[in-house]
Amino acid sequence: MTLMGFLILLLIAAICGGIGQALAGINLGGCLASIIVGFIGAYIGVWIANKFGLPPIFEITIQGQPFPVVWAVIGSAIFTFIIGLLRKIFT
Q: How far is it, in rounded angstroms, from Cα 5 to Cα 73?
């Protein structure tokens, strides 16, 4: 993967993470946090989709690397909600 492809992948992950945080109503941080939340959300979303046998809804392929946009947003919202709940419990 080239540098440009990697940067585009980071941008898409940041957008998905930001949308997921907005849906959950909790802000975990800035751009770096959105990128991390986007990638973790993609992993969680794909895992949930595979568990229930759901197909990929909207996937963007960047230089041969697929990124599941819808599952990343859903997984990001779930991950952000869980982190928000843990913050409230332990603070």
A: 20
Per-residue pLDDT tens over the stretch 3-46? 999 999 999 999 999 999 999 998 988 999 999 999 999 999 99
* pTM to 2 decimal places: 0.90
Beta pairing partners, 61 = 66
DSSP 37-90: HHHHHHHHHHHHHHHHTPPPSSEEEETTEEEEHHHHHHHHHHHHHHHHHHHHHH
Residue 64, phi-psi category: left (phi > 0), alpha (psi -120 to 50), beta (remainder):
left
